[in-house]
Structures are given as C-alpha cells and as structure tokens.
Design a protein that fits this description.
The complex is a heterodimer of chains A (112) and B (112). With 112 residues, chain A is mostly beta strands. Chain A has strands at 4-7, 10-13, 19-25, 31-38, 42-51, 54-57, 64-66, 76-78, 87-94, 102-103, 107-111. In chain A, strands 2, 4, 5, 6, 9, 10 and 11 form a 7-stranded mixed β-sheet that branches. A 4-stranded antiparallel β-sheet of chain A has the order 1-3-8-7, with no helix packed on it. Chain B has strands spanning 4-7, 10-14, 19-25, 32-38, 45-51, 56-59, 62-67, 72-77, 86-92, 101-102, 106-111. In chain B, a hairpin with a 4-residue loop joins strand 7 (62-67) and strand 8. The radius of gyration of chain B is 13 Å and the shape is globular. The chains are: A mainly beta (112), B mainly beta (112).
Chain lengths: 112, 112
C-alpha cells in the first residue's frame, strides 16, 4: 500500500540534543512538508520541498533543518536552538501545488 | 499572506443531528479549500475539498459550501454518527502557491 511512514511514533530527548525525525513516502509525490501541531494552534508549516535538493522555509523554521536528497525522504532535524521542541510533528506529501496533502501518523517528540 | 479563521473551536451535537463548521479566509486569490479530519493519535485525512469555480460539493453525509464574495466556506455533516467524533481542519491555498494555510481546528463531539 502506498503511504507516508513517520518513525518513530514517540521520541524522547534531553534538552540540548539534536534529534532527527524520519519521513518516507512511496506515493511518488514531488512535494513534501513538515508541520508542527500544538494544542489549540492548528498546523503550522516548518519547511517544505517541491523537488529533490530544494526546500523552503515555512512560517516557523527557526531551530529546525531539513534535507531532500531523495524524492522519497524528507528528514527533519530539531536542533538545540529550537526553544520549545516538545510537540506533535506531522509529515505530508502531495503531487504539487493545489493538490491534496497526504499525511503520515506523526511523531510525538518530548524534550526534557 | 493568507489567514484562515475557523469556528467554533469545540462543537457538541447529539447523534443523528447535523454539525456545521465555518471558516473564513483573507486572500481573495485563494482557490482551493480542503477539509481534513484528524482522529486521536493519527495524521489528518482529506475528507472533502472544493475549488473556487464550484459553490457546493457533496459526498454522502458530508457537504462543503463556498461563498467567494464573502470569503467563507463551511463543512456540513448530516445524520452524525459516533465515528464522526474527531478534530476537523479547514484550509485554503492558491494554485500558484505551494503553502496550504490551515485553520486552528474544531473538536467535534457526537453525544449518544
């Protein structure tokens, strides 16, 4: 079955450590996205990529980094510079502009 | 940039009754309006969408209406069932923009 896989489902880290969240898709989609979800805040865009080896900052990119070396993969690194990293992180993909998003089931990151 | 407002933030309806969730958008150039349903611990899933050349779209118990003049769109769920309990997000974007802007979500409770 085609879809988006995010791993792990739960992730725990100590403050000051970088952590990388995995996102893989086998839908052959060109565009991929990372969203952060906090209670009452909706979905806020962190980074997005329309094509391999290219990506753009979203609305809340500070303290995060991404790479897009393969069409199927769009890992997100939460760096120690991110002031409030504890959140639910969602990866999505789409065929491109104006197309529906397909979401993974998220990674819940807890930093203590 | 685009701003999407969603109301109410929480909605409780008796099983079998109808539920209505409303969204407004700010950018008159927006032309694609998807609705997503998010169940607990999962990623959002597209349930219905509408483009600006259409005023209404229906899929079984779910319908979406769009008023371009007033810049608002609504989700209607009829004959609600327990499995309709979830968080619903509206969103807006335009064809030439790869960023989809989400509302803050509505938590729908279906009461037995």
């Amino acid at each position: 079955d085609g879809g988006i896989t995010q791993s792990p489902k739960y992730l725990f880290r100590k403050e000051g450590q970088n952590v990388t969240l995995s996102c893989e898709q086998n839908l052959n989609h060109d565009a991929m996205y990372w969203y952060r979800q906090d209670p009452g805040q909706g979905l806020r865009l962190i980074y997005y990529s329309q094509i391999v080896n290219d990506f753009q900052k979203g609305d809340i990119a500070e303290g995060y980094s991404v790479s897009r070396e393969k069409k199927e993969s769009f890992p997100l690194t939460v760096t120690s510079a991110q002031k409030n990293p504890t959140a639910f992180y969602l990866c999505a993909s789409s065929l491109g502009v104006g197309s529906p998003l397909h979401f993974g089931n998220g990674t819940r990151l807890t930093v203590t | 940039g685009e701003n999407v407002e969603q109301h109410p933030s929480t909605l409780s309806v008796q099983e079998g009754d109808s539920a209505v969730i409303k969204c407004t958008y700010s950018d008159s150039a927006s032309n694609y309006f998807p609705w997503y349903k998010q169940e607990l611990g999962k990623g959002p899933q597209l349930i219905i969408d509408i483009r600006s050349n259409v005023g209404e779209k229906k899929d079984q118990r779910i319908a979406v209406t769009l008023n371009k003049t007033a810049k608002h769109f609504s989700l209607h769920i009829t004959e609600t069932q327990p499995e309709d309990s979830a968080v619903y997000f509206c969103a807006a974007t335009k064809n030439r923009d790869d960023k989809i802007i989400f509302g803050k979500g509505t938590r729908l409770h279906i009461l037995p």
